[in-house]
Amino acid sequence: MVIFFNYAVTKASVHDAKETVELMENTHPTNHYLLGDEGYLGKQLHNQLRQMGYELWTPYRKNMKGAKEHNNHQLMAVRRTIESDFSLLTYYNAENNRARSLTGFQARLEIAILAYNLAYCLERFN
């Protein structure tokens, strides 16, 4: 399972990769290895994160040159676990947030993340 440390809320038109550098600057994770999906492919993002001391691994698309050698099945299994855990947030109404203000939206989202993290800790440490 995954514990959430930080998040960013953006318009739907903003790509996830654009927020990655800011999230890493604000979070400062102790692990300097990051896993991304195919949406994070791109030399510019990899170079920015490398300058910050992070190594980003993203799987290659199946039709890309060298995909069979690069795509580590263990790392891809970890990625699938992370994506599954993200989908669990729907149980805590993270997607159906019907708040009427930005403050209410943020509060409800943080409550969903807190509930998820508490459930993870209770399951893991009990």
From TrEMBL:
Any Pfam family: DDE_Tnp_1
Organism of this sequence: Lactobacillus gigeriorum DSM 23908 = CRBIP 24.85
Protein name: Transposase (IS4 family)
InterPro entries membership: Transposase_11
Residue span, Transposase IS4-like domain: 4-118
